[in-house]
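Input structure tokens:
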């Protein structure tokens, strides 16, 4: 059955992601999603970008685990996000609902599994709100190629592990001006090793070199960055990966 599981999982991933267009509300975007070539390594990398009454909201996440179980967990997270993002005025409440959905799924089906996630909200001109659940920190690339890693001031545990902690995660705002590009990804990008199996992909350094001035053509920018990533990895990625670029239209 291994041969049958691979194509089924890949088809499920394509169906649940619902790739957005190049513009959502006042946000331009470009994305590359790579499903592992090896069926045994297919995982639950996920992303969504949608417009809401409260601004454009985005989610990038990565389910711990592989195969159909991971794809099912990704589907739970995405379904909950798409509903909550329209209903809830605050980003924290959106994330709490996604966390609750993932936790129920994990408790009933997959004990010990969790999902890292980063939530973003493009609400106010000149800034972006971020909320961190154990995920890869985003990068902000300025028009001159300067890169800032947007580490969370209040790191939080991944989705599905909230019962192990007390309190709640805190969102924070970062400057996000005209011409800036926000790079969001999963660990399949930053943990891609070179062709010799050695060094990880230096995302911050390469993003600065390849995305300087890319705000006017995000598709060309992501094509250059993705080609550089694949070249670093020796011609093919061995794990799922999401690479998402965003910028404000004004």
């Amino acid at each position: 059955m291994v041969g049958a599981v691979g194509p089924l999982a890949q088809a499920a991933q394509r169906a649940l992601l619902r790739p957005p267009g190049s513009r959502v509300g006042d946000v331009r975007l470009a994305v590359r999603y790579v499903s592992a070539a090896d069926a045994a390594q297919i995982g639950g990398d996920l992303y969504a970008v949608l417009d809401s009454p409260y601004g454009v909201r985005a989610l990038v996440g990565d389910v711990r685990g592989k195969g159909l179980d991971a794809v099912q967990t990704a589907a739970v997270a995405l379904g909950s996000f798409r509903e909550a993002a329209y209903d809830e005025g605050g980003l924290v409440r959106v994330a709490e609902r996604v966390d609750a959905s993932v936790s129920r799924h994990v408790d009933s089906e997959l004990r010990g599994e969790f999902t890292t996630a980063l939530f973003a909200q493009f609400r106010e001109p000149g800034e972006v709100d971020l909320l961190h659940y154990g995920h890869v920190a985003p990068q902000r690339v300025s028009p001159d190629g300067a890169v800032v890693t947007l580490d969370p001031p209040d790191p939080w545990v991944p989705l599905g592990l909230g019962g192990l902690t007390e309190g709640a995660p805190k969102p924070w705002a970062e400057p996000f001006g005209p011409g800036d590009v926000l790079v969001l990804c999963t660990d399949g990008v930053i943990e891609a090793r070179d062709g010799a199996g050695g060094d990880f992909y230096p995302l911050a350094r390469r993003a600065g070199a390849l995305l300087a001035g890319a705000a006017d053509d995000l598709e060309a920018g992501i094509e250059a960055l993705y080609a550089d990533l694949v070249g670093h990895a020796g011609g093919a990625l061995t794990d799922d990966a999401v690479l998402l670029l965003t910028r404000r239209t004004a």
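Residues 9 and 68 are 6 Å apart (CA to CA). The longest helix spans residues 67-87.
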